[in-house]
Amino acid sequence: MTELVDTHCHIQSIGQTQGERGTREIWAKHPELIVEKVLENANNRGVRRLLCVGCDLADSQLAVDFVQEHDECWASIGIHPHEAKHQTGEKLAGLAALAAKPKVVAVGECGLDYYYGRSPKSDQIRVLEFQLELARTAELPVIFHVREAFDDFWPILDNFKDLKGVLHSFTDTAANRNKALERGFYIGINGIATFAKDQALLDVYKTVPLERLLLETDAPFLTPAPHRGSINEPQRVADTAAFLAELRGEKLEELAAATTHNARQLFGI
Questions:
Q1: What residues does 186 pair with on adjacent strands?
Q2: How would residue 18 be classed by pLDDT, with cut points 50, 70 and 90?
Q3: Percentage of the chain with pLDDT > 70?
Q4: Three-state SS across the chain?
Q5: Which of 58, 73, 152, 258 sits between 20 and 30 A of 251, alpha carbons compared?
Q6: pLDDT surpasses 80 at 223
Q7: Would you state the pLDDT for residue 121?
Q8: Pick from 139, 131, 127, 138: which is nearest to 164 by CA?
Q9: How far is CA 88 from the centre of its chain?
């Protein structure tokens, strides 16, 4: 069976009463999806490794605790830009303390999101810079969330040399994709690709070099076609992989092998 990696999911929130609220509430609407079932579904479709991504301090702690109990899972610790305005020095110190925990393999998701503007730009930048320094100090790759903010993002990033990372859920231009590739970053593609209508965006996905491509779900969000309207699970990375293989004119086995190799190279999982 083709082996796949989901490099971005939020399954640590299943059945929880703490952590990022919106994610918990979505999982709570589907009580039949207990953790064991979600992991079984993933394994049955060849998804052998999963990266559980934190969005705030409590959510990151959940991820760290969760992956200690599940051999196929690893954790990333981070503060989402939406949460930046709530971050005190104490909370940021708490995040930094998690970096040395077992099976923590990345910092993020972190970045800038000017589309929703749920936190002031100044707070977003402050918290991003803290996490970039944390990643540099801890020698960890970074999972970036950037939306309508690349003009500010690139100059900030370029102040932190030699970082590795991935642009999660990439939906931007070929120009920004190229800037990411020039800096040695990976491009994370999820279910959005399967229902995107913009030909320019599909062309971006089509032309990402295979050696810089990562697959993800963002579960429980962004369910790929043909399953739109249902909750997303890590197993659905297989649907995105199949779509991309056809879009790019590649054999599914080759795309799966390459993206699995890329995940191991970046995250060491």
A1: 166
A2: confident
A3: 100
A4: CCCEEEEEECHHHCCCCCCCHHHHHHHHCCCCCCHHHHHHHHHHCCEEEEEEECCCHHHHHHHHHHHHCCCCEEEEECCCHHHHHHCCHHHHHHHHHHCCCCCEEEEEEEEEECCCCCCCHHHHHHHHHHHHHHHHHHCCCEEEEEECCHHHHHHHHCCCCCCCEEECCCCCCHHHHHHHHHCCCEEEECCHHHHCCCHHHHHHHHCCCHHHEEECCCECCCCCCCCCCCCCCHHHHHHHHHHHHHHHCCCHHHHHHHHHHHHHHHHCC
A5: 73
A6: yes
A7: 97
A8: 139
A9: 24
pLDDT at position 39 is: 98
Q: Which of 135, 123, 118, 112 is nearest to 20 (CA)?
A: 118
Asked whether 186 and 213 are in contact (CB, 8 A), the reply is yes
Domain limits of the chain?
A: 4-267
* Region 93-120 average pLDDT: 97
Output the CATH code of domain 4-267.
Answer: 3.20.20.140
Instruction: Give Cα 72 to chain centroid, integer Å.
Output: 16
Residues 6 or more apart whose CB falls under 8 angstroms from that of 127 comprise: 79, 81, 83, 84, 87, 92, 110, 119
Mean pLDDT of 170-184: 98
List the one residue out of 141, 140, 124, 135 whose CA is nearest residue 87: 124
Distance CA(264)–CA(256), nearest Å, equals 12
Q: What is the pTM of this model?
A: 0.97
